[in-house]
Amino acid sequence: MAPSTTLxxxxxxxxxxxxxxxxxxxxxxxxxxxxxxxxxxxxxALSNDFYTARxxxxxxxLQELVHxxxxxxxxxYNRTVVQLGLCAFRKGLIRExxxxxxxIFATQRVKExxxxxxxxxxxxxxxxxxxxxxxQRQLPFHMHINTELLEAAFLVxxxxxxxPLLASIDNEELKRKAISKPFRRLLDFADRQVFTGPPETTxxxxxxxxxxxxxxxxxxxxxxxxxxxxxxxxPEAQSVxxxxxx
Amino acid sequence: MPIALWLASxxxxxxxxxxxxxDSAFSxxxxxxxxxxxxxxxxxxxKDGIVRIRGSIxxxxxxxxxxxxxxxxxxxxxxxxxxxxxRDEKGLYGTICRAQAFYExxxxxxxxxxxxxxxxxxxxxxxxxxxxxxxxxx
Lengths: 246, 138
Description:
The structure holds 2 protein chains of 2 kinds. Chain A has 15 helices and no strands. Chain A has helices at about 5-10, 15-25, 30-45, 50-60, 60-65, 70-90, 95-105, 110-115, 130-135, 145-170, 170-175, 180-190, 200-215, 220-225, 235-245. Chain B is mainly alpha-helical. Chain B has helices at about 5-20, 55-75, 80-105, 110-125, 130-135, and strands spanning about 25-30, 50-55. In chain B, strands 1-2 form a two-stranded parallel ribbon.
């Protein structure tokens, strides 16, 4: 016996998710309604419907409410935000991608925020109970969002926002006001390097590309960005690469 | 929980759901009148012809789902064992769908919402949920 909503009578997975969410919005349980909302937004972001997903995110006022939610819901919220950022990136909305991913990367604890691994913290002693609770919260591997890909998307969008800005200002005061601190830190670090070999990691690629862009060599920058291997994990990798070349 | 045990319990829960869905003379509810566990009861003896048994199908579902996640957390994700285990998600998803059908039929909004949430959590992060298709075909 089948439930009232199935993939067969809904056609696509999006309309199935939509139907299930609508059913849940009618329930009295606020906890379930919040989670359903997040799942719904996540699914919209996953299917590249950025504006719908963003509008739902803003209209639901989840940003203000999520601080009071339980940890599992906060993790789901972070996942949704990240997925929204990736969606913006795929659609070529660089500014939106940068500002969406900004908050997550500013903490430098991306993995922990997504429950995909724990960060070693030197000055923090966790009790065994806390550690156990942390481990139980971890997502199973097949649900993970690739953090390297995420970082690449974030750094590339930061680069595209930040470098033209750096070029347009000559005032020291303004220069210190970075849009993306994590990106600036990496760039400063790369500047101080005495010797730079051929790029190996994703970060190396992006840092060298940023420098090329600073020197006005946009073709070199494009080639460096397009040679990053991790893009292959992104759906529609080819169109994303073309978008970046524009 | 060992995987064999998990599979066995999943089968039991499936059977239970099938029985209570097919035969409306028996019903599993969280709140029932007191009754004696050791007395054999039949629909004919009951006032309205329904034997009510205390229990909670949604807790079984919750438990199965949680144990499934737990076992995935403890398997090395780069091995074949992980993929093998992941195949069981299809069966689990089927069980959840059947439970949803049961709660829809018996009109219990609260557990229905919970079971829909469980179902949603299995599919929201997938673009083309293949296991759905398979469930419908069966």
